[in-house]
TrEMBL record:
<dbReference type="GO" id="GO:0004553">
    <property type="term" value="F:hydrolase activity, hydrolyzing O-glycosyl compounds"/>
</dbReference>
<keyword id="KW-0378">Hydrolase</keyword>
<dbReference type="InterPro" id="IPR013783">
    <property type="entry name" value="Ig-like_fold"/>
</dbReference>
<dbReference type="Pfam" id="PF02836">
    <property type="entry name" value="Glyco_hydro_2_C"/>
</dbReference>
<dbReference type="GO" id="GO:0005975">
    <property type="term" value="P:carbohydrate metabolic process"/>
</dbReference>
<feature type="domain" description="Glycosyl hydrolases family 2 sugar binding">
    <location>
        <begin position="43"/>
        <end position="140"/>
    </location>
</feature>
<dbReference type="InterPro" id="IPR008979">
    <property type="entry name" value="Galactose-bd-like_sf"/>
</dbReference>
<keyword id="KW-0326">Glycosidase</keyword>
<dbReference type="InterPro" id="IPR006103">
    <property type="entry name" value="Glyco_hydro_2_cat"/>
</dbReference>
<dbReference type="InterPro" id="IPR036156">
    <property type="entry name" value="Beta-gal/glucu_dom_sf"/>
</dbReference>
<comment type="similarity">
    <text>Belongs to the glycosyl hydrolase 2 family.</text>
</comment>
<dbReference type="InterPro" id="IPR006104">
    <property type="entry name" value="Glyco_hydro_2_N"/>
</dbReference>
<dbReference type="InterPro" id="IPR051913">
    <property type="entry name" value="GH2_Domain-Containing"/>
</dbReference>
<dbReference type="Pfam" id="PF00703">
    <property type="entry name" value="Glyco_hydro_2"/>
</dbReference>
<dbReference type="InterPro" id="IPR006101">
    <property type="entry name" value="Glyco_hydro_2"/>
</dbReference>
<protein>
    <submittedName>
        <fullName>Glycosyl hydrolase family 2, sugar binding domain protein</fullName>
    </submittedName>
</protein>
<dbReference type="InterPro" id="IPR017853">
    <property type="entry name" value="GH"/>
</dbReference>
Length: 639
């Protein structure tokens, strides 16, 4: 049976300045300069080197493989001076058989290149392309006769469950390297064997199948595939899967297991403050817990293949997933092969995840594309490829705001969504309603979603009179209040995804907000602060009782009377000031109270057994010449 040994410690990293330092993995070299603005983070080739002892193995009957789960963006791997593999694509798994060149002690060198080029995606986008080895590196010892390790970085097993009344048929395809028989076992969540079969293309049946049913009941089976030679198991792969059906109706939205299941959720970038993409499993866990707290039931994993661990979390927690490749912003004629290879890897490596319902072929590709004919042809090739490789899932893409509804690229995939920031980049929140209504009138049979929408909000910028473009926490909240009501008016949307769940680095950004950052997140980059907008979504989507007073960080006020806004998913909210009840309201989601303000007032909101507290303080208006820095006050905008 196969064994894994991680190679995460004691690497030598030769960086941009040519100096060498000791590092551990995961690691990226743009964790600082890729987050500080200026669009000047270093892009080029850096080198990682480590020494390792050959693992215990029998050269006559076993092989040793190297596995990389994420190296951005191009990797050239050598062992003991011999090149063992080259890989283009910074977000997928790749492997190399190194059995024939192993010595007792070995030198592993990885040249990693994130430089600008015209052939490997992404090259132009509103996020930082961190260079480095930022996911796990492992040695795998496996029998020479084994379930395939060399097939597009996948696990060598493809599981296709189909609901058939109360039962499920499960097709299991297996790719092998070497010789042997394949035996298959399907296990329930408690380990009970529910079906058995054999062969490279086997059909099994689960009676009275327990469905994977989203957030409510994300039930998972396990498929155990064993390779047997001369009656003895020599290799084994275990893959979890879920039994579910889904569909999309242009007039009624998304359906899961035959029932309407409106998809409302968020998009996610994987980076962190000071770390870039070099994040831990604990950080993945924290992201999922925050998304669950919000009440989301779908995640768009933008704009690239994410860590297998996070797809596993989506399976376990019932999140419906849009998975995509980084074919983004600009079509590069020299990058067509790379879009195809990245799509093949995405599908093969993620096929068994029940959470995934659609493959995203591109994002905002019309922003700066010049060769439209070649771009359209590439999209048709990708769309056909997805359907050829996976007949169970839908295809989609995200259109740029300035990509009109008649653009041919918007009508290639099964589904389409738009990235629209009406009410943020352009005035007029009402334009969102008009745009949706127009598209649905012209194309009533075309499923439409909102793949990105949002507004920048910084928890240290505030205003009593928030306005578009001011980057205040208050305007961001007003924007999202409107969008939630807007979506209620358009229940036929197939999915909506907030941009973004978390703030993220975009080193090219220098206008407004903090240089190098996109502050459209509902939670700050370090995951420490939930902005007010987080709680308006929680009020709409979560069933866990809570109450939240908005603008708590906006302590100092110049008005003698202020509005106190409260978010809650409870029907009745009462507000107290210095222990005295000043009002009680019955409603939903948003509750507003007028509060006289003199001196310092302590406020408490009560909804059932949930309580939240805040303090507001009356201050004199500042001198007109007074310049207030973001860092020095909770009220950085005096309006």
């Amino acid at each position: 049976m196969r064994t894994y040994t991680k190679l995460m410690k004691n690497w030598q990293f030769t960086g941009p300045d040519g100096s060498t330092a000791a590092v551990d993995l995961p690691h990226t070299w743009n964790n600082i300069d890729g987050q500080d603005g200026g669009n000047d983070y270093w892009r080029g080739t850096c080198t990682y080197t480590t020494q390792f002892a050959a693992p215990a193995y029998d050269a006559a009957t076993q092989q040793v493989w190297l596995q990389f789960e994420g190296v951005n963006a191009t990797a050239d791997v050598t062992v003991n001076g011999q090149k063992v593999t080259h890989h283009d694509g910074g977000y997928s798994t790749f492997r190399a058989d190194i059995t024939g060149i192993l010595a007792e002690q070995n030198t592993l060198t990885v040249a990693v290149d994130n430089s600008r080029n015209d052939s490997v995606y992404p090259q132009k986008a509103d996020f930082t392309f961190y260079g480095g080895i930022y996911r796990d590196v492992s040695l795998i010892v496996v029998s020479r006769d084994h379930i395939a390790l060399g097939y597009l970085g996948g696990c060598g097993v493809q599981i296709t469950p189909t609901v058939q009344g109360a039962d499920a048929s499960v097709n299991v395809k297996t790719w092998v390297e070497g010789e042997g028989e394949v035996e298959i076992e399907l296990q329930a969540a408690d380990g009970t064997v529910v079906a058995q079969g054999s062969g490279l293309d086997a059909d099994l049946k689960i009676e009275n199948a327990h469905l994977w049913n989203g957030r409510e009941d994300p039930y998972l089976y396990t498929c155990v595939v064993r390779m047997v030679k001369n009656g003895t198991p020599v290799d084994e792969v275990r893959q979890r899967f879920g039994v579910r059906s889904f569909s999309v109706d242009a007039k009624k939205g998304f359906f899961l297991n035959g029932k309407a299941y409106p998809l409302h959720g968020v998009s996610r970038h994987q980076d962190r403050k000071g770390l870039g993409n070099a994040i831990t499993r604990e950080m993945h866990d924290e992201d999922m817990e925050l998304i669950k707290e919000l009440g989301a039931n779908t995640i768009r994993l933008a704009h690239y293949q994410h860590d297998q661990y996070f797809y596993d979390l989506c399976d376990e927690n019932g999140m419906v997933v849009w998975a995509e490749i980084p074919y983004i912003s600009e079509h590069m004629p020299g990058g067509r092969d790379n879009t195809i290879s990245q799509m093949k890897e995405l599908i093969v490596q993620n096929y068994n995840h029940p959470s995934i319902v659609c493959w995203g072929v591109s994002n905002e590709i019309t922003i700066s594309t010049k060769d439209k004919k070649d771009m359209l042809d590439n999209h048709r090739v990708l769309n056909d490829l997805c359907h050829e490789m996976d007949k169970t899932r839908l295809t989609t893409l995200a259109c740029y705001a300035m990509c009109g509804p008649f653009n041919r690229v918007a009508h290639i995939t099964d589904l389409v969504s738009w990235n629209l920031y009406l009410g943020w980049y352009v005035p007029g929140l009402f334009l969102n309603d008009l745009w949706m209504d127009f598209f649905h009138t012209v194309y009533p049979n075309r499923p439409l979603g909102f793949s990105e929408y949002g507004a920048e909000g910084m928890p240290n910028l505030h205003s009593s009179k928030p306005r578009r473009g001011d980057h205040t926490e208050e305007y961001q909240a007003v924007y999202h209040e409107y969008m939630l009501e807007c979506f209620r008016r358009h229940p036929w949307l197939w999915a909506t995804h907030v941009w973004n769940m978390f703030d993220f680095a975009a080193d090219a950004r220098d206008q407004g907000g903090e240089p190098g950052m996109n502050h459209k997140g509902l939670v700050t980059f370090d995951r420490k602060t939930k902005k007010d907008s987080f709680f308006i979504y929680k009020a709409w989507w979560s069933n866990d009782p809570f109450v939240h007073i908005c603008s708590k960080r906006f302590v100092d006020r110049t008005e003698s009377e202020i509005e106190v806004k409260v978010y809650s998913n409870q029907k009745t909210v009462a507000l107290y000031a210095d222990g005295q009840k000043i009002g009680e309201q019955t409603g939903e989601h948003v509750f507003t109270f007028r509060l006289p303000l003199s001196g310092e007032v302590h406020v408490k909101a009560v909804a059932g057994d949930r309580i939240d507290e805040a303090m507001f303080r009356h201050v004199d208006a500042p001198n007109p010449d007074y310049k207030l820095s973001r860092a020095s006050s909770n009220s950085a905008n005096w309006v």
